[in-house]
């Protein structure tokens, strides 16, 4: 008889199953703040952008000075790779530097690591006044990146990027103005040389102490040693400053002895042409600046200093300089790296070597992209040999050379179609999506038809794209469901509504459940609920086709001229003036861009600055209130300058995302 049946016969209670007590789950957010700091401090900084998306509290922790004080106290600091890009395109030309930081990817479906953009609240520190890759000198010291000098004009200004918080601030100015100076870090101090008019000046070389935030002079090397040329280069090894120029003069400065020596006296035995090549590209290698579509480098030598060892990329292999043997030697063990032609950038990342290179032309031909690859190599000295181990390599940043029509849905910005820069007449079906929460681009489902200069509009959370093909074609318009991530064709407008076979779209907007299209000779509206087309009266096209416009809370607005804004009354079928807008600058219509800003209207425009030759971008935010069917009133909440840009820049798009 079983135990259970025996207990039942005897009237005893059956034995109870032992219950295991489960510990309640504890959220990290419920812990004391100091404990949260200690936990987050032990997480790699590469995950901080992802952590900041979890909650406002974690975002606050990640941005707090206490976190970095805790990391420093626990000796948990780490090296972080920063990348500075300039995009040279013709047209347009964008000379401004764009900064990125390497982080771990939240969704690891493609790569584990990627560069994300970092921004600055004060763009004056980000702006570059020149158009070449050597406008300024950039040096990393501790958790700061220092940017010094200028190009046209020369400058004594110094800007500092605090990499803990990705914010810029000013540092004490140099003693003299410099144009394209050389700069290097030696024993924690920044040495800046050249780039000034007076080569005999006692400040031709000066040194900055980040601890005391002061500049000091360095003895002028004199005509016999002093390198010359428009662009000097330098690096620091074993506590000494090595300085190169284009006149075959190379000096070494010993800060301990406070004196200069010609390099040849130290018996380095380096080939002069190699030294020249090294000097010409040192800037790009040290500060990781990569010209995505600029003039090819004049030489093929790229290098960096890691642990007082000079490394070089030359003739498809990595080399290092053995000071004892006075010779270049091959870096072993890096055969696993993929082959790449042309230039690369090398940088010291916490004692390891980061190598960055670019690959052009990936994609389907219609959506050509330019990819930046990164490899991380661990280094080990074995007697007279240097060995490397490739720890990882992958695509870390992709840029697209096309721009279609941009629309926003929630926290995403969609780039619909477009034209590659070098394929001006070829349409595209590509869709790119910018997740504004993490500032990362991904590829979306392609459209069913390829389109050249398409128009797009959002209605009820769906994206309608049209144009760039025969309007009688079944592919003239299609709709994208952002929830299901699928495209579906929309019926084409009937022949009697089309003034001509090929309709050139001028404007497109979604209001009252209809997609309104102003095209060449035709004014159409597609009723999304009934799935049919209808003609629209001429009164709506008056003015709308020639001015900047936006849709806010189901109402179309356009900026007419000199501070006047109009809105379209769909019931009265007429344009009416927006009332009560006092304080709006009277600006020409061709400089204005309107955008829906969370139910308010953002008005952006640019204005030249005579003293500098640059432009200031202005922004005005207007609150909107409907008083009755015939009146909408606006109130200017604020108006101010928000960005300083070179004169060549223009406003391309303005959109608002919900985060």
Q: Could you outline the blueprint of secondary structure elements for this entry?
A:
Elements: H1 3-9, H2 33-41, H3 48-51, H4 56-62, H5 65-73, E1 82-87, E2 94-104, E3 113-117, E4 137-141, E5 144-148, E6 158-162, E7 167-171, E8 182-186, E9 189-193, E10 205-209, E11 214-218, E12 233-237, E13 240-244, E14 250-254, E15 259-262, H6 272-287, E16 289-291, E17 302-306, E18 309-314, E19 317-322, E20 327-330, E21 345-349, E22 352-362, E23 369-382, E24 385-400, E25 405-409, E26 412-416, E27 431-435, E28 440-444, E29 455-459, E30 462-466, E31 477-481, E32 486-490, E33 505-511, E34 514-519, E35 522-527, E36 532-535, E37 549-552, E38 555-561, E39 564-569, E40 574-577, E41 593-597, E42 600-609, E43 614-628, E44 631-645
Parallel strand pairs: 1-16
Antiparallel strand pairs: 1-2, 2-3, 4-5, 5-6, 6-7, 8-9, 9-10, 10-11, 12-13, 13-14, 14-15, 17-18, 18-19, 19-20, 21-22, 22-23, 23-24, 25-26, 26-27, 27-28, 29-30, 30-31, 31-32, 33-34, 34-35, 35-36, 37-38, 38-39, 39-40, 41-42, 42-43, 43-44
Brief account:
It contains six helices and 44 strands. With 659 residues, the chain is mainly β.
Please characterize this protein's 3D structure.
- The protein is mainly β and 659 residues long.
- Among the domains are: 42 residues, no CATH class; 135 residues, Neuraminidase (6 Propeller), CATH 2.120.10; 114 residues.
- The protein has six helices and 44 strands.
- The chain has a four-stranded mixed sheet. A four-stranded antiparallel sheet has the order 4-5-6-7.
- β21 and β22 form a beta hairpin.
- Pfam families: F-box (PF00646), Kelch_FKB95 (PF25210).
- This is F-box domain-containing protein.
């Amino acid at each position: 008889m079983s135990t259970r049946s025996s207990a039942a016969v005897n009237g005893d209670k059956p034995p109870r199953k032992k219950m295991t007590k489960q510990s309640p789950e504890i959220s990290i957010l419920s812990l004391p703040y100091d404990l949260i700091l200690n936990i987050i401090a032990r997480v790699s900084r590469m995950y901080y952008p992802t952590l900041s998306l979890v909650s406002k509290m974690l975002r606050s922790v990640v941005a707090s000075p206490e976190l970095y004080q805790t990391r420093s106290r626990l000796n948990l600091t780490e090296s972080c790779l920063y990348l500075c890009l300039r995009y040279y395109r013709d047209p347009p030309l964008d000379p401004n530097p764009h900064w990125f930081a390497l982080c771990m990817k939240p969704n690891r479906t493609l790569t584990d690591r990627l560069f994300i953009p970092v921004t600055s609240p004060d763009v004056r520190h980000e702006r570059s006044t020149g158009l070449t890759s050597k406008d300024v000198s950039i040096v990393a010291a501790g958790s700061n990146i220092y940017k010094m000098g200028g190009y046209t004009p020369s400058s004594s200004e110094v800007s500092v990027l605090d990499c803990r918080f990705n914010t810029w601030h000013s540092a004490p100015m140099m003693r003299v103005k410099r144009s394209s100076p050389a700069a290097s870090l030696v024993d924690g101090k920044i040495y800046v040389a050249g780039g000034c008019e007076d080569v005999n000046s006692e400040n031709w070389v000066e040194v900055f102490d980040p601890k005391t935030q002061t500049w000091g002079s360095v003895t002028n090397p004199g005509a016999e040693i002093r390198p010359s040329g428009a662009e000097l280069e330098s690096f620091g090894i074993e506590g000494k400053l090595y300085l190169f120029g284009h006149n075959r003069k190379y000096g070494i400065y010993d800060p301990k002895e406070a004196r200069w020596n010609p390099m040849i006296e130290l018996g380095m035995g380096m080939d002069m042409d190699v030294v020249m090549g090294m000097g010409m590209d040192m800037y790009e290698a040290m500060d990781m600046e990569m010209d995505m579509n600029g003039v090819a480098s004049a030489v093929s030598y790229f290098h960096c200093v890691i642990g007082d060892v000079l490394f070089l990329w030359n003739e498809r292999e990595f080399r290092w300089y053995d000071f004892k043997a006075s010779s270049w030697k091959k870096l072993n063990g890096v055969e696993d790296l993929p082959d790449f032609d042309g230039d690369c950038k090398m940088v010291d990342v916490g004692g390891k070597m980061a190598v960055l290179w670019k690959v052009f032309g990936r994609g389907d031909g219609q959506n050509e992209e330019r990819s930046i690859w990164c490899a991380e190599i661990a280094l080990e000295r074995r007697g007279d040999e240097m060995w490397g181990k490739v720890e990882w390599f992958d695509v870390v940043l992709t840029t697209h050379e096309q721009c279609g029509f941009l629309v926003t849905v929630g926290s995403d910005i969609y780039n619909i179609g477009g034209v590659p820069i070098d394929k001006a007449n070829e349409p595209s079906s590509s869709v790119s999506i910018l997740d504004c929460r993490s500032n990362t681009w991904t590829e979306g489902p392609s459209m069913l038809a390829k389109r050249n200069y398409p128009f797009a509009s959002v209605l009820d959370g769906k994206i309608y794209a049209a144009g760039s093909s025969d309007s009688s074609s079944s592919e003239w318009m299609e709709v994208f469901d952002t929830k299901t991530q699928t495209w579906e064709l929309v019926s084409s407008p009937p022949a009697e509504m089309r003034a001509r076979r090929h309709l050139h779209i001028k404007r497109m907007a979604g209001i009252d459940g209809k997609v309104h299209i102003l095209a060449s000779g035709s004014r159409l509206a597609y009723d999304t609920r009934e799935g049919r087309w209808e003609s629209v009266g001429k009164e709506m096209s008056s003015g709308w086709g020639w001015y900047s416009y936006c849709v806010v809370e189901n109402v179309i607005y356009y900026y007419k001229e000199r501070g006047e804004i109009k809105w379209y009354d769909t019931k009265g079928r007429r344009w009416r003036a927006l009332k009560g807008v006092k304080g709006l600058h009277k600006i020409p219509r061709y400089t204005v861009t309107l955008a829906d800003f969370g139910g308010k209207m953002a008005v952006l425009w640019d204005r030249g600055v005579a003293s500098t030759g640059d432009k200031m971008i202005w922004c005005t935010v207007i609150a909107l209130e409907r008083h009755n069917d015939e009146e909408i009133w606006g109130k200017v909440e604020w108006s101010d300058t928000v960005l300083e840009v070179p004169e060549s820049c223009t406003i391309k798009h303005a959109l608002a995302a919900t985060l």
